[in-house]
Structure prediction request, 236 residues.
Amino acid sequence: MRLSAPVYRLKRQARLLSRREKVPLHEALDRIAAKEGFGNWSLLAAKAAEATPGDKLLARLMPGDMVLVAARPGQGKTLMSLELAVATMKQGNRAVFFTLEYVHADILNRYRDIGADPADFDQLFEFDNSDAICAAYIIERLQFAPRGTLAVVDYLQLLDQKRDNPELMVQIGALRSFARKRELVLVFISQIDRSYDSARKPFPDMGDIRLPNPLDLSLFDKACFLNKGEIQFQAA
Prediction:
């Protein structure tokens, strides 16, 4: 069962309800839980504490891995990647988010959408939306990153946008070598080709990755595909 809002927002609703109707907070919490389909707040909280998809994906990763998170637009690629970043930071490791799609405020709002408080990870999270993002830039920014750092690149195809950058194959090969050497995890959000038909198969796969230019997808170690709220993990 998916909650209608992150837990911190539901708690806020309960506090407002408690003040408005002058009822004890525990009663207000239980009433909010009932609206979410749970018998009481404790059951809701237990459900919220279960391992997230990000936790499950992180458990499959090793330092040095190159990972694809891929789906058609609107299927939750960014939220999945941020859940993965949160899971990483809960373990005390750093997370870096490279993007040309968002500004910092957008990402902070997305964190709240998954029930995470950005203030909890203030010293562990970095955001970068420089126009210079490419493999060489990422390597330079991460050259002193400690082992276990996770970096999200939003998205794979942006590395292929500027003609003065090396070919995508060359860039991904350089990033793979760098990730292995520094024992970092590099996660690439990826677009799926428009030809993918969810009526024909429930999840996209490696053959559906949108590639304007050639790229050997065996350079990636693992992949996570999303469709209609469901997730499928695959070895790349």
In short: The chain has a mean pLDDT of 92. The helical segments are 7-21, 25-35, 41-48, 53-59, 77-90, 104-113, 135-141, 168-182. The chain has two domains: 7-48, 53-235.
